[in-house]
Amino acid sequence: MTYVAQGDFAPITRLETAVQSMSVDRPTLVLDVDRVEYQFHQLAQGLGRANIHYAVKANPTREIIERLVNIGSHFDAASRAEIELCLSQGADPADISFGNTVKKVGDIAFAWHAGVTLFAADAEEELEKIAEHAPGAEVYIRMIVENSQADWPLSRKFGCRGEKAIDLMAYAVELGLKPVGLSFHVGSQTKRAEMWTGVLDAVAEIWHRAVAEGYDLDLLNIGGGFPAFYGEAIDAPAAYAARVMDLVTARFGDVPRVMAEPGRGLVAECGAIIAEVLLVSKKSDDDMHRWVYLDIGRFSGLAETEGEAIRYQIATPRDGGEMGPCILAGPSCDSADVLYEKRPIMLPLALKSGDRAIIRNAGAYTSSYSSVGFNGFPPLDVVVL
Ligand SMILES: Cc1ncc(COP(=O)(O)O)c(C=O)c1O
Fold first, then answer.
1. Where in this protein does the record say N6-(pyridoxal phosphate)lysine is found (predicted)?
2. Is 265 in the pocket of ligand 1 (CB under 6 A)?
3. Residues 383 and 31: beta-carbon distance below 8 Å
4. In the chain, which ranges are continuous DSSP H helix?
């Protein structure tokens, strides 16, 4: 069984060794926090003058936050609980942005009293909530992204369209807030830096219009989208981030404050899930495909297999033998708990119940998506090396 990761990270063998030798009794995400630090430095090198605000939602494991605080990361939080987590690990509240555009008023008040001063908004009512519970705060307006080429797009639900961003800046001023800039999210797992071009063009147009109308904008939040390796080639993080920053600078010039909010690109490759094959079966004797059921599924950590968007690489001890197409499913009694069917996955013909399945580069959006125990299957356990 071999574990493959991108880049030249020498201690990668530590994760490989651990997932092969560790004995577990439930699906377990094994994390190597040194790898997070490595990714942070790679991204920071490429991002240059942009500050990294780690998107805590990607993986809120305490040891990851602690390490990132120690190496100078800032944080993008989505809720009071995420802010509390960062503060508990020593983060400076001034380094935490409250990036969710749909916040509970109690969370806004908590954040403001804790010293968080930077908030996202994409609607009038959100600005009113911020003005009431964090009077005088800095706000950036999130723009909707129409032309995402990401594997996991984040368009539609968040952001406002075009001119509305400028109207919201005017309203923020009226409410006594400080509109300092714009944010967007190009879409998660945007595999190539060039895919940012159309999105950056659209945001830059509004940015320059706002500046022409007299808004003194000094903050551009370029969000996440930095990819992880799931089997298809991607650029190394430093080169990717540097190219994104070139594209940003060409359109926005020297904006004083640029923030990036990587989640997946920072933590996906630092983790692997140890899972177990529960059953290999066929629905009829002449079935072309085998069904392979794992002890982890859509509800216990692999939510991003929805639409087969994120295709994890799976290693088994029987790799190297003859392979055949499989439909991969989770263990629960819910028929939505099928991971890969439209594009079946190739697994060894010798695979059988009880075999270990290692799900590679699964450090992002897995433990944080895991249900408490749907169907009685335990949530994803987390072990930090
Ligand atoms: C506001 C915000 N910033 C950053 C991220 C992280 O994105 P990614 O994991 O693609 O880097 C997300 C992901 O949902 C987000 O909602």
1. 57
2. yes
3. yes
4. 12-21, 33-47, 62-70, 80-88, 105-114, 124-133, 164-174, 197-212, 237-252, 264-267
Given a contact cutoff of 8 angstroms between Cβ atoms, the answer to whether 338 and 257 are in contact is no
- Tell me the angle at which helices 164-174 and 197-212 cross, rounded to the nearest 10 degrees: 40
Ligand 1 pocket mutation pick from 39, 142, 154 by most atoms within 8 angstroms of CB: 154
Please state, in angstroms and as integers, the Cα–Cα distance from residue 225 to each residue in 16, 149, 193, 346, 359, following that order.
Answer: 26, 10, 9, 28, 21
Does the Cβ of 330 fall within 6 Å of ligand 1? no
CA of 369 to the centre of ligand 1 (A): 14
Distance 325 CA to ligand 1 centre (A): 33
Decide whether any atom of ligand 1 lies within 6 Å of the 363 Cβ. no
Count how many residues are written for the chain. 385
Per-residue pLDDT of the chain (385 residues; tens, 9 = 90+): 333 444 444 445 789 889 989 999 999 999 999 999 999 999 999 999 999 999 999 999 999 999 999 999 999 999 999 999 999 999 999 999 999 999 999 999 999 999 999 999 999 999 999 999 999 999 999 999 887 788 887 777 899 999 999 999 999 999 999 999 999 999 999 999 999 999 999 999 999 999 999 999 999 999 999 999 999 989 999 999 999 999 999 999 999 999 999 999 999 999 999 999 999 999 999 998 999 999 999 999 999 999 999 999 999 999 999 999 999 999 999 999 999 999 999 999 999 999 999 999 999 999 988 888 788 888 899 999 9
Residues 126/104, Cβ–Cβ less than 8 Å: no
Domains (range + CATH), the chain: 33-262 (3.20.20.10), 269-384 (2.40.37.10)
For 99, residues 6+ apart whose C-beta sits below 8 A from its C-beta are 53, 55, 76, 77, 78, 120, 183, 221, 261
**Helices H, strands E: what count in the chain?**
10, 16
Q: Is 160 part of the annotated catalytic residue set?
A: no
Contacts of 317 (CB under 8 A, 6+ apart): 1, 355, 356
Q: Alpha-carbon distance 57 to 327, whole Å?
A: 29
Please answer whether residues 178 and 138 qualify as being in contact, where contact means their C-beta atoms are separated by less than 8 angstroms. yes
Q: Is the CB of 112 under 6 A from ligand 1?
A: no
